[in-house]
Amino acid sequence: MERRDVLRLLATGAILHLAPSKMLAVAAEARALLDNQPSLRTLNPHQDATVKAMAELILPRTDTPGAMDAGASAFIDLILTEWYDEVQRNVFLDGLAKVDSRSQALFAKDFIDCSLQQQGDILIDLGDSMVARMRKSRDYHFFDPDSDIDTDFYAILRRLTLTAYYTSEAGATDELHFEIIPGRYQGCAASSLDEETSKK
Residues 61, 47, 103, CA angle at the centre, nearest 5°? Predict the structure, then answer.
């Protein structure tokens, strides 16, 4: 698969709809791209810290790894750099800046300096706005693919965070329970029919 095809699948979240075997192949290519990714190329250190904090709130570490463990911010930086055009990048970066503006207005500090409760409140507000916007783009039960939902920073962040997580080893194995090799194989095990036949 071509690099651009991999990035397209990742950027749009379409990879999550692939068959498990195909998803594993794309995920492996994506992780190879990340391994060859130099340091941050689009996000600056402050933006990277903000993305990490927000992604970890979306998918926190529990008894399974969280978004930070899956390298979500590095993944997002890769997509912003290699796939998004300037307009899409600016939508994301402007949205990120507005998170700090909102945080300053509410709590007089940047998002990363807020308490977890304050950060959670901001994400709840962003989520409510995203849902309201999605409802406006629906015609009865049909989603309008030409709507401007892709200009919603939080929707983009959530999609990229989920894609980063579920294409990671932790997300694919711990959460989706993908198994490349089945847990056990019993090719020579006698079936119940065989057992009945041998008793006669």
Answer: 85
pLDDT tens digit sequence for 57-100 = 999 988 888 889 888 999 899 888 888 889 989 999 999 999 99
What type of residue sits at position 74? A
Neighbouring residues of 8: CB distance < 8 A, sequence distance ≥ 6: 14, 83
Q: What is the 3-state secondary structure (H, E, C) of the chain?
A: CCHHHHHHHHHHCHHHHCCHHHHHHHHHHHHHHHHCCCCCCCCCHHHHHHHHHHHHHHCCCCCCCCCCCCCHHHHHHHHHHHCCCHHHHHHHHHHHHHHHHHHHHHHCCCHHHCCHHHHHHHHHHHHHHHHHHHHHCEECCEECCCCHHHHCHHHHHHHHHHHHHHCCHHHHHHHCCCCCCCCCCCCCCCCHHHHHHHHC
Cα separations (Å) of 123 from 82, 97, 138, 164, 186? 27, 14, 23, 19, 49
CB 92 within 8 Å of CB 156 = yes
What confidence tier does 10 reach under pLDDT thresholds 50, 70, 90?
Answer: low
Which residue in the block uniquely carries the two structure tokens 């959460």? Answer: 175
Which tokens in the block code for residue 3?
A: 């690099």
Q: Where are the domains of the chain?
A: 3-199
What is the phi/psi pair of residue 76, to 5°? -65, -40
